[in-house]
Amino acid sequence: MTDVTSSKSARHPHHWRHDLIELAALFTAVVVADTIAKTIVKGPDGPYLLVFSAIALIATAGFHTWWARRHSHAPPTTTAGASSAAPTTHEGAVPDAAPDPDRAPVSTETALWRMRTTVDDTPGSLAALCTVLGRLGVDILTLQTHPLTEGTVDEFLLRAPADLAAGDLAREIGAAGGRDTWTERADAHDLVDTPTRVLGLATRTALDAAELPLALRQLLGRCTLHSVPAFSLTGRPTGEQAPVEGVLEETVMKLRDPSGGTLLIERPYLPFTPTEFARARALVELDARLGPRVPRSQDVLTLPEGNEITVRRADQRDLAAARAMHDRCSSRTLSLRYHGPVGDADRYLDHLLSPRFGRTLAVQTASGRLVALGHLLWDGDETEVALLVEDDWQRRGIGSELLSRLVAMAEEAGC
Fold it and tell me: Residue 199 to residues 209, 215, 223, 273: CA-CA distances in angstroms?
């Protein structure tokens, strides 16, 4: 329902008392006028006085009518301190208020920003930030709070005018009480709310063990992740074994790798919060409970000469078949693949087949023999592709097929 009132219902109610008083006044006026008229007519200038009186009466009545109509259209006045209703349009909507001179003009072009700042854990600190953002014409899309021992980290996803510089935004936030402010351009992928994004990452991790490093990167933003094994390639202990509960040291996070060793996560430009540490540890615990797993989907392809091959994902359970393929490869093939001593090739296989370091594709024949391996390996910010095809199966398009698939995986993973 609207607050619109029709012109008929807006009139003042009709009171019978007013009519009675006016009727009495009319009879009184007639009696008085009759008495005065009889008195004047008997005088020598009676007719002239009667005409002048009629003219004066008409003039007075006309002035009274004009005055009443003028003030009946005047807006009602309110007493000091009383609140009056805001004017409405013909459909009851409140008209646009006059522009605030302190508010920045709204730009038609906008940009998405991620902003993180630390404020004191006191009432009104967040309100002060919101007031500044509103004055700058910035719209708050999402907000997360990360409690600290002293203070609170507020993380915003903002839609700001395109001409608003990051330095100006940080300066205004600092004046409102924010400190250690960090800003970064965002994109449409950040529009997903945090619970939905975390659930999606958990689902991907549950389906594929190789997704854990990628899920941690997407969860924590731009960071560097290294998987440090518990033993070196020569079999010696590396001494890298994080405690079960993990370690948080400002910009460094250490988590125990379920497959052995330590997951080392670094973000030098921005310290981790206890909330982020708890989320990352929950993902790692999920991976540990589910154990080794890899999608078992496979594609059957036909080579130009008519032989069928199967391309599928591989993991450490294919270690024996991979070693057997190495034994069938020539020394030249192995040296071109590893760029080092051929005798050390077997030591890398367990590392290469681990989902912690990337994804592996295997090619097997109709009889089930493994004849090629393709690795998509990531370590920190670097990503590399490595291929090995058994000598008897080279120059048949197997390497090209593996390379195209691995590149597609890299694009999907954002490498």
Answer: 16, 11, 20, 20
* Dihedral sign for Cα atoms in the order 201, 204, 208, 214: negative
Percent helix, strand and coil across the chain, each to the nearest 5:
40, 25, 35
Say if CB 61 and CB 67 are below 8 A apart. no
DSSP-derived secondary structure for 316-360: GGGHHHHHHHHHHS-HHHHHHHHSS-GGGHHHHHHHHT-GGGEEE
Whole-prediction pTM: 0.61
Considering only residues 1 and 212, tell me which one the structure prediction assigns the higher pLDDT: 212
Q: How far apart are CA 257 and CA 246, in angstroms?
A: 10
349 pLDDT above the threshold of 80:
yes
Residues β-bridged to residue 312: 298, 362
Of 279, 260, 177, 172, nearest in space to 221 by CA: 279
CATH superfamily for 110-191 is: ACT domain (3.30.70.260)
Each residue's pLDDT tens digit, 32-58: 666 666 666 566 666 666 666 667 667
What is the edge-to-edge ordering of all strands in the sheet holding 224-228? 224-228, 262-266, 252-256, 247-249
Domain ranges (residues) in the chain: 110-191, 194-290, 298-413
Asked if domains 110-191 and 298-413 share a fold, the reply is: no
What is the structure's pLDDT at 161? 93
Q: Does domain 298-413 have CATH number 3.40.630.30?
A: yes
Cβ distance 401 to 311 under 8 Å?
yes
Contacts of 46 (CB under 8 A, 6+ apart): 40
Q: Is the pLDDT reported for residue 24 higher than 90? A: no
Q: What confidence score (pLDDT) does residue 25 get?
A: 67
Three-state DSSP state, 237: strand
| Coil vs helix vs strand at 244 | coil
| pLDDT value at 15 more than 70 | no
